[in-house]
Write a structure and sequence with these properties.
- There is one protein chain.
- This protein is α/β, with parallel strands linked by helices.
- It has one domain: Aldolase class I (TIM Barrel, Alpha-Beta Barrel).
- The chain is built from eleven helices and eight strands.
- It has an eight-stranded parallel β-barrel with strand order 1-2-3-4-5-6-7-8, surrounded by six helices.
- Helix 10 links the parallel strand 7 and strand 8.
- Helix 1 runs parallel beside helix 11, helix 7 packs parallel to helix 9 and helix 9 crosses helix 10.
- The chain is globular, with a radius of gyration of 17 Å.
- The two termini are 13 Å apart.
- Bound molecules: phosphoenolpyruvate (PEP).
């Protein structure tokens, strides 16, 4: 199991390239002021901001890695509006968020597309942050554990060889995203254990399991410790440097205590 937490900021469709530049610079100032010791930091800006953010990270040597929010499963060709893995690699992108619930809901990204996309990402040497999570109806019916376990098996089942050391799983209950109230640590722990079982059965037991859904500086420590996750996928709170860094610091402190 990793001795470092992983915290990913998903900026979604927010921040133009000037705003992205400012946020990256602000993150740099705060992280330089008090460096993190136990946290891998990743930000996932919109495609059009990647080049700008990549330049700031490189020129200021910031301890931040770059992720994309989505990628095409295809290598190249007539796929209007899409972006390929190779294009991301040219921009020093290290990871891709795959199968976020918003892409599943609004862009018909089903389990098969998710599985093919994860394969395209890992087979070409990038990391995949694979999102799974149930909606409110599935949870109310009590099927959440089997639902998420099946989603994960479908996403990772084919091609686990290239997935090794290249995937992490973000458990993001749809009902907790952008709501201001996260899942409880007990709910997260139940699911992180189930996810870990699936990962072990696929021989991917080293993968980190993240939680996402209304994480903030106040709930991060409890979720990390009692939820038995190794980091977070953060939406709203990643759009301001102070609130994102509060989560990073809480995670860093938790991991420092573990040592
Ligand atoms: C997300 O959409 O990945 C997410 C976790 O959003 P938020 O933190 O705003 O709930």
């Amino acid at each position: 199991m990793s001795t470092r937490a992983l915290v990913v900021g998903n900026w979604k469709m927010n921040l133009d390239f000037v705003e992205a530049l400012h946020l990256t610079q602000q993150l740099g100032v705060l992280l330089r002021h008090r460096p993190l010791e136990h946290v891998d930091v990743v930000v996932a800006p919109p495609f059009v901001d990647l080049r700008t953010v990549s330049s700031v990270i490189e020129s200021e040597r910031l301890p931040i890695a770059l992720a994309a929010q989505h990628v095409s499963e295809h290598r190249a060709g007539p796929f209007t509006g899409e972006v390929s893995v190779a294009m991301l690699q040219r921009l020093t992108v290290a990871a891709v968020i795959v199968g976020h619930s918003e892409r599943r809901a609004h862009y018909a990204m089903d389990d098969d597309v998710v599985a093919r996309t994860v394969r395209a990402v890992t087979a070409n040497g990038l990391d995949a942050i694979v999102c799974v999570g149930e909606d409110g109806d599935v949870r109310d019916a009590g099927h959440h554990v089997t639902f998420v376990a099946e989603q994960l098996r479908r996403a990772l089942g084919a091609g686990t060889e290239s997935h090794r050391a290249r995937v992490c799983v973000a458990y993001e209950p749809v009902w907790a995203i952008g709501r201001g109230t996260s899942a409880t640590a007990e709910q997260v722990r139940e699911m992180s254990r189930a996810i870990r079982e699936v990962l072990v059965s696929l021989n991917l037991g080293d993968a980190r399991v993240l939680y996402g859904g209304s994480v903030n500086g106040e709930n991060a420590s409890t979720l990390l410790r009692d939820g038995e996750v190794q980091g977070f996928l953060v939406g709203g709170a990643s759009l301001r440097a102070e609130s994102f860094v509060a989560i990073l610091r809480a995670s860093d402190d938790c991991y420092a205590r573990k040592r």
